[in-house]
Design goal:
Layout (H helix, E strand, L loop, with lengths): L7 E4 L3 H13 L6 E4 L2 H8 L15 E4 L8 H10 L8 E5 L4 H10 L3 E4 L4 H18 L11
Parallel strand pairs: 1-2, 1-3, 3-4, 4-5
Helix pairs in contact: 1-5, 2-3, 3-4
């Protein structure tokens, strides 16, 4: 039996960055379904299976690619909620952002981010960075099965 591929959640409000990321993941032959959410509130709705995502199937995603500067709820708050929730904290979260601010880097690592990647300005560099991310986090990286460990 072949295991079902877990989804990747892309939390990004910039339409150009969404297209570039999707293109890079396809070029790297990442077969996982990509769910695009356009703000932090929608990302949390997806993860907590509420509002428009109340009926979604499947468990936790394989990966969350998270922009920091999003409307409604910013990426820092999304990360804080994910990493403080026993049912979600094992989901790998990779910040994919244009922010080079040291305080953002330190804060996200303090909250438990798995990786922090600054979006390259150059188109080809951006594509290459996302290919590496997708290939590692969606294909190579092993994650525990859904849910917290049982005592």
């Amino acid at each position: 039996m072949i295991a079902e591929l877990k989804r990747i959640v892309l939390a990004e409000d910039n339409a150009n960055d969404v297209e570039l990321t999707l293109t890079a993941l396809r070029e790297n032959h990442v077969a996982n379904e990509i769910v695009v959410v356009r703000d932090g509130a929608e990302a949390l709705d997806y993860l907590y299976k509420r509002n428009g995502y109340a009926d979604r199937s499947g468990g936790n995603p394989a990966l969350v690619l998270l922009d920091l500067k999003m409307p409604k709820v910013d990426g820092i708050e999304v990360l804080r909620q994910v990493k403080s929730d026993p049912a979600l904290k094992q989901i790998p979260v990779v910040v994919l952002t244009s922010s080079r601010e040291e305080q953002d880097l330190v804060r996200t690592y303090d909250l438990g981010v798995n990786a922090y990647v600054v979006k390259p300005v150059d188109f080809h560099e951006f594509i290459d960075a996302v290919k590496l991310l997708g290939g590692f986090w969606a294909v190579v990286n092993e994650t525990p099965s859904a849910g917290p460990p049982r005592p």
